[in-house]
UniProtKB/TrEMBL annotation:
Name used for this protein in its record: DUF1275 domain protein
A Pfam cross-reference name: DUF1275
The keyword Chaperone is annotated on this UniProt entry: no
Taxonomic lineage: Eukaryota, Fungi, Dikarya, Basidiomycota, Agaricomycotina
Keywords, sorted A to Z: Membrane, Transmembrane, Transmembrane helix
The keyword Cell membrane appears for this protein: no
Database matches in InterPro entries: DUF1275, MFS_trans_sf
Transmembrane segments: 135-159, 179-202, 214-235, 250-269, 314-331, 337-357
Secretion signal span: none
Length: 363
């Protein structure tokens, strides 16, 4: 009897609470107020004595509806579960700022890489390459002065070396049957082979773009490494710098051959890079063609205005002559190793220089 009365009273209280909760929602009043925040007439937990109790059976019959008990149990379980839920996650302002800053930094980094790649793979303007190509010609005379002073072999002019090897082969048929391989011929052969090897390295530029800033800077830096290796080799050889006669070269040991090989390879690479740019400086290592083209230039004597086809050829000749002159002066002053060390520094400057040559404008 007491249990049925308790259930009946609980159900009546639950219905009254539900009615007042709906009223509070319509008035915009919070459903979980703190103490003293609501007037007494809106207190959902104070039940007036004048309000009639709801009874499922006014005649005093038994309360036997099991669905009501299930509803009460379900609401009680929901109340218990809601009380154990974690507080809502709040994203503070600093966290939002950090996420936005990281996103902007990543976007800026990606755009910087795109700009750098575009800059490196842009083709240079051949008309703006006059300065570095002039220094290329200077280095031709500079390097050749070192090898010719020591062993009378040109590491850039392979025409003479080719003819020298032809003469060495002809000695086999002169009646004296001289089968000896003279050291001058061996040095000429070493220079020719390594020159071809350096020119073959220049074919890598066809993969990267033979006129791009990246290849021009990288290729010149490889020349720098070759020149540095030659300087170290001749320094460790402990040999002289100037030969008294062709029959008595200053360089004869293995390290001197290594020096000749690295210098010739650097000139072969320089020649193929200069040729790929297709300017009036041609290969920057051969002046025979340059002299011929200069002599047949139709505007050779038109001295009242600038003629690129004529003036650039004259610059190439003058720079090569100046390089040979300065190279010999340095050899007499500081020796071959130090001279090649200075040449290494000049090549390094050219390597960086290519990165700042203006790109070719699309017409």
């Amino acid at each position: 009897m007491h249990a049925r009365s308790f259930v009946k009273n609980s159900f009546g209280t639950f219905n009254r609470i539900h009615q007042r909760t709906a009223s509070l929602k319509s008035l915009g009043v919070p459903l979980i107020p703190h103490k003293g925040s609501l007037p007494s007439d809106l207190d959902i937990f104070s039940i007036s004595e004048n309000e009639p109790e709801l009874d499922d059976n006014p005649s005093g019959g038994t309360f036997d509806d099991p669905n009501i008990l299930k509803i009460i149990g379900m609401n009680a379980a929901q109340d218990a579960t809601s009380s154990t839920l974690p507080p809502p996650a709040i994203q503070n302002r600093f966290l939002r700022y950090s996420i936005g800053k990281n996103r902007r930094d990543s976007e800026d980094g990606a755009s910087a890489m795109v700009r750098l790649k575009k800059h490196l793979f842009a083709e240079v303007d051949g008309e703006q390459c006059t300065a570095p190509l002039s220094v290329y010609c200077f280095m031709t005379g500079f390097i050749d002065s070192v090898t010719f002073s020591a062993i009378f072999v040109w590491c850039a002019f392979q025409t003479g070396n080719s003819v020298q090897l032809a003469l060495a082969l002809a000695r086999l048929f002169n009646g004296q049957h001289d089968y000896s391989f003279h050291i001058a011929d061996r040095q000429a052969l070493c220079s020719l082979i390594t020159f071809i090897f350096g020119a073959f390295i220049g074919r890598l530029g066809d993969k990267l773009g033979c006129k791009t800033r990246l290849w021009l800077a990288l290729g010149t830096f490889i020349q720098t490494l070759f020149t540095m290796a030659a300087a170290i080799a001749i320094w460790k050889s402990h040999q002289g710098s100037v030969a008294d006669a062709r029959a008595n070269p200053a360089w004869t040991n293995v390290l001197s051959f290594v020096c000749v090989g690295f210098m010739s390879a650097s000139m072969g690479l320089q020649g193929i890079m200069g040729k790929r740019l297709n300017t009036q400086f041609t290969t920057t290592v051969v002046l025979t063609t340059t002299w011929c083209e200069l002599m047949v230039d139709p505007k050779l004597f038109d001295i009242r205005r600038i003629v690129i086809s004529r003036d650039h050829k004259i610059m190439a000749i003058v720079c090569l002559f100046l390089g040979g002159f300065i190279g010999r002066v340095l050899i007499d002053s500081v020796g071959s190793a130090a001279t090649l060390g200075i040449g290494t520094g000049v090549r390094l400057i050219i390597s960086v220089w290519w990165l700042f040559i203006p790109e070719k404008q699309v017409k």
